[in-house]
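Quick illustration, no need to memorize.
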Amino acid sequence: MTESELERPSKTAIKKEMQALQNLGEQLVKLSNNELAKITVHDEHLSDAIATARRLTSREGLRRQLQYIGKLMRGIDLTEIEAGLARRDEGQRELARAFHNLETLRDEIADGGLPAIDAVVEQFPDADRQRLRTLVLQIAKDAKANKPPAAKRKLFQYLKELQDHQAKD
């Protein structure tokens, strides 16, 4: 083997790199208009190729367009695109964490009854104690009567409103 053959990447490595670029392009194509607008794509040809891929309905046409997008991405700096996708993913994870925290708080209130309301008021000072009290009593009443957890859903919605209001302030 010559020295140039040792430095050159293998066919497998090249194929893996191309597949990674196609996957990155596929992520861009699947984004909503608002999400795509937040990601900086400096290359005009790449922007056009992404827009074209978003309009395609043929599976084979989309596959070929994604290959083309991967080919275009070989020649450009992807740091801003990757950073934009990473920010989006982190935002999604943050939303999921916040949603999970609200579910946990709702369950703690539903299980803890009236004494648990103080924890909510401590976390959300502008919370309406009377509304919380009514929802907690309704949750207990629904559970006793084996009814669907409509009050639990209302409590979750109210907690989400409180969280959203607190985030705006």
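The CA atoms of residues 124 and 162 lie 7 Å apart.
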